[in-house]
């Protein structure tokens, strides 16, 4: 068994881009480990370390040497390897030389391309210390860095200037150069607390020595959790709860190596400004965590994570208070200015803002949203006039100073301006709800007006972008149509809205007349069908179940109806009768598909000869009568439960009755029965597609 030692690689740099740090760290680790694995070097656990000034990987119990292995190499075809007299050609001699053998030491092997020369070699494993420098260089070279830079007279390029390189295999230094840095055993601690070099005796000492002697918590995950806990405690100490956004937490973790949470205050007067703007100013500009009270209202407190242990923490907190004051004052200034104008006045400027060159300005889009929102509101029991006005004002806040400064305030600022102006509360809510849901699992519009405006906005964009031929391709979806379409489906289904989506797509296209190719509405509708599939697959619904409902165009028109059908078929599929009925439906579909003309539209009782076909006919007629009220209610699960009773009569029919009878009248009558049977199931879904 090969000797095993810990391997440590650390690259020290100037401060790395905080948002890119987790990605750089994982990419370095994954690529290095992949190469070690490919080389057959066994190892134990792998630890990643990432800080503002370092990327490091510690591989536990790495084999000191590759195992010896047998390598097989194919050479030229035997026909080309020897001449007519059986003497080796240059091809044979060249191959033998390339593998360090003589021609008579080569074997022959039969392949699908004929007999070829063959060499079996014993390859001695290389030492890990010989392989690591190349592996590290390749891993660093493959890091996902959009733009590499060069500094001073250096010729090497990297995301930031490199300052040191540690490469330890156990207690020994692996000697190589990378990014103009010679490898060694000296790492560096905190820039201010412990700037001196720290000599590592062996690789496994890395994290402990950095923490004890260098004032650096090298483990990103541990440092992140420390910051979370400190911020939460600081929030409790301030009498509230720290608002911890995961992305901000990651960024702050990447900025500091020795985290110390400090609390600060700001003037109560700033609380008149929308709290979303204040939170945005603190989080985006200063990387502060805000503090909320028990009702979720912003308190005049904040938490900053310092990278040093100060002798006078109060002075550091005061410095941060001084820094945040101008930021919050700017937000207050923008808000006060925006409140001086009504939303109608803000909306006037949208006539000069292009939404999309072919689809017109934002003013044009708002006009379309208002008209369609009114139609939707009328269908779902909302206030048509309120929805029209909300749609017309839906993008007005994009012309405000607040949104220009804080883009996350779109919709939010509209809500506050509408309330400030004294507009109806539901209209104000709708201006915020129009952007919901913003991501998978996000909350949905609560008000009828908000639902109408959100749907109208998303449908207008979907139809417009498809109408000008800019459909999503592969991973490219610049207008986020996939997300918008899933949002449309969720709003309709989860709010129980009985809307015909196909009809709404056509109405949106009519309002875009002259700007788009209206024929492309079909493509937009097909795109919606694709989102049905993605949405239900995400919920764990089997693909054949989804396909069985997608097969019915009318079912796809109404998302709420589609949802009921899918769930009914999913429940039906679990029944023991499902497989047999799916097979029977498949058989019926195949029979009917081969007909050159449609079967009779009625069943003639006088032509029923067999007891099994008489029984099935009676049951089919009875099922039609019983299922009609259930279908009107949309109770598809009850319909399928009713049809499950047909399993045995259907089996008996196919066991004893010859469908394609010689008598044309009898044959036609039996085909009519099968057609009625299939239509019964098609009232819910194409059950034949459940048979895999």
Automatic annotation (TrEMBL):
Residues annotated as domain DALR anticodon binding: 587-687
Keyword Protein biosynthesis appears in the UniProt entry: yes
Top EC group: ligase
Main subcellular localisation: cytoplasm
EC id: 6.1.1.14
Record carries keyword ATP-binding: yes
InterPro entries named in the record: DALR_anticod-bd, Gly-tRNA-synth_bsu, Gly-tRNA-synth_heterodimer
Catalytic activity as recorded in UniProt: tRNA(Gly) + glycine + ATP = glycyl-tRNA(Gly) + AMP + diphosphate
Keywords attached to this entry: Aminoacyl-tRNA synthetase, ATP-binding, Cytoplasm, Ligase, Nucleotide-binding, Protein biosynthesis
A Pfam family reported for this protein in Swiss-Prot or TrEMBL: tRNA_synt_2f
Compartment annotation: Cytoplasm
Subunit structure: Tetramer of two alpha and two beta subunits.
Family: Belongs to the class-II aminoacyl-tRNA synthetase family.
HAMAP family: Gly_tRNA_synth_beta
Name of the featured protein: Glycine--tRNA ligase beta subunit
Organism from which the protein derives: Alloalcanivorax profundimaris
Record gene name: glyS
